[in-house]
Fold this sequence. Notes:
The structure holds 2 protein chains of 2 kinds.
Chain A: E1 12-14, E2 17-18, E3 21-22, E4 25-26, H1 27-45, H2 56-75, H3 84-101, H4 113-135, H5 150-200, H6 202-239
Antiparallel strand pairs in A: 1-4, 2-3
Helix pairs in contact in A: 1-2, 1-3, 2-3, 2-6, 3-6, 4-5, 4-6, 5-6
Chain B: H1 2-23, H2 36-169, H3 175-188
Amino acid sequence: MHSPMEQFEIKRLFNLHIGSLDASYTNSALWMTIAVICAFFVFVVGMQKKALVPGRLQSMAELGYEFVAGMVRDNVGSAGKKYFPFVLTLFVFILFCNLLGLVPYAFTPTSHIIVTFAMAAAVFIGVTVIGFVRHGAHFLSLFVPKGVPFVLLLLLVPIEIISYFVRPFSLSIRLFANMLAGHTMLKVFGGFVVMLGIIGGWAPLAFIVVFTGLELLIAFLQAYVFAILTCLYLNDAIHLHH
Amino acid sequence: MRKPVYSVLAAALVAGASGAAQASAGGMPQLNFHDFAPQIVWLVITFVVLYLVMSKLAVPAISDTLEKRQAKIQGDLDAAEKASEDTRALVAAYEKRLADAREQARRLQRERNEADSAAATARLTELADKLNGRIDEAEKRIAGQRAQVLEGLEDMAHDIAAEVYGKLAGQPADAGALKAKIAAAKGGQ
C-alpha cells in the first residue's frame, strides 16, 4: 500500500541543469504544460471561429472571460483593466491545474506550497510595486485607518502591517492546503476501498464519488478565491481604501 | 528576487515541520526543497507562456467578438426600432388618407345633394311658371270667349227683343231705343 503522500512526489522526467540552477522537467512541469495546452485549446482554438452565435467551446471561453472581467470590473473598477489579462491568466492557470489534478494518475502542481507561494509572492510584490508607483510614499497610508484616535493607531498600525505581510502566506496556503487535503482524503478513502474489499468497500467508494464532486467545486472555488483576492489587493493598491 | 524568498520560506517550513515530516513514512514531498527550483522554473515558464497566449491571442479575440456581437445586437435593435417607427408613420399616413377620403366623400355627397335639390327646385319653378303661363293663357281665352258669348248674347237679346216687340206692337221697333233699353237692363243686372 502506497502512502497517501506518494501522489505528491516530484519525479524528474528530464534532468536539466543550467549552471547551478536545477531546471529539470518534472511531472509537475508536465501537468502545468498540459494545463497551458488545455487553456490554449479552450481560449484560442475555441475562439478561432469568432462566431456571433458561439458554439460550446467558444461559450466556455467567453464565459471564463466575462466571469473574470466582471470580477475585475466590480472589485477594482476601470483602473483594473490593465491587469485583467494577468488576473485571467492566474484564474485560468490555477483552475486548469486544479481540475486536471482530479484526473486519475494526474499530478496537481497547485498541491505544492512552493508553486502557490511563488504565485502569491508574485501577486504580493506586484501589488506592492503598483501601490508605490501610483501613490509614492502616500501608499503607506494604507496601514493607517482613517478616523481612529492616536492611541488606538499605536495598536492598529502594527496589526495592519502584519496583516498586509501575511497576505502572501494566507493566499498560498489556502490553495495549497485545499488541494493537499482533498487529494490526500481521496487517496485515504481509496485505500479503505481496497482494505474493506468487495464486501465493505462500497461505502468508501460511494463517499469517493460524492467527494470527487465536492473536489470539483473546490477546484473552481479556490481558483476563484485566488483571483478575487488578487483583485481586492489590486484595489487596495490602486484606490488606497479598505 | 524569488530565490531569497523561497529559501527563507523553505527554511521556515522545514524548521516547523521537520519533526512531523521525519515521523511520517516518506515525509511531505512538498517540503523537499531540492524540488523547489525546477517547479519554480517551470511555473514561471508555463505561466509566462499562458500570459502571452491570453493577452496576445485570447483576450483580443474574445473582446473583439463580444464587441462585435454587442454592436450587431445594438444595430439590430436600432433597425427594429426604425422599422417600427416607419410602420407607425405609415399607419398614421394611411389613417390620415382614409380620413381625408371619408371627408371628401361626405363633402361630395353633400354637394351632390345640394345640387340635386337646387335642380329639382329649378325644374319645379320652371314647371310652375309654364303652368301659370298656360293658366293665364287659358283664362285669357276663357275671358275672350266669354266676352264673345256675351256679345253674341246681346245681339241675340236684341234680335229677340226686336222680334218680340214686332209681334206685340205690330210694328218694327226703333233700333236705337231698343238698344238703349237693353243696355239699361244689362246695366241694371
